[in-house]
Amino acid sequence: MLKRLFTCLAVIFTLTLPSSAWALSCAAPIFDKSSIENAKVIFQGRLISKENVNKSPLKALAEKLGFKGGDVNNMKIFTLSVEKAWKGTKKGDEIKILRNTYWGDGVPVDTDVLVVASEAVGDAYNAPLCSNVIMYSAHAQKELKLITGYFQ
């Protein structure tokens, strides 16, 4: 009888042990002076369109970056109109950003955003999943202050 009790307890204990859990999240990206120095393009602009990368010539470039299969399906091309430029572009230019939208694209068309991109991909810039490439202008006051101060 005691042997059965210990066997049952052992089975229950084994089945209720905590198991590993995995989270899909990113650490908050660091934005500092080196982010500005390493950027190829810095501007504030308005998102004017989104396009699935599968329907674009940039699909081959996305695949070169290592995005294949389902990953490519998560890639979108954001086209932005530059309203204020600090580095690598000028007001009125249209810039394309290759963005991984695995967790949703999160930026509605006709929204003002701050873009700080350091990786060119053909005629576009890459926005890795865990990055500070695109930020809502309204929420990026600290970053805007740092950029403005840097370029004065």
Briefly summarize what is shown.
26% of the residues lie in helices and 31% in strands. With 152 residues, the protein is α+β, with helices and mostly antiparallel strands. The chain has one domain (31-150): OB fold (Dihydrolipoamide Acetyltransferase, E2P) (Beta Barrel), CATH 2.40.50.
Helix content: 25-40%
Provide the β-strand percentage band: 25-35%
Tally of discrete structural domains: 1
Main pleated sheet: 7 strands, mixed
The tally of strands reads 7
Radius of gyration: 22 Å
Strand arrangement, major sheet: 5-6-3-2-1-4-7
**What's the tally of helices?**
5
Overall shape: globular
Give unreliable regions as ranges.
17-22
Distance between the termini: 83 Å
Report mean pLDDT, rounded to a whole number. Answer: 78
Question: How would you classify the quaternary structure?
Answer: single chain
N-to-C order of helices and strands: HHEHHEEEEEEH
CATH class: Mainly Beta
- The CATH architecture can be given as Beta Barrel
Which secondary-structure class do the elements indicate? alpha+beta
CATH third-tier fold name: OB fold (Dihydrolipoamide Acetyltransferase, E2P)
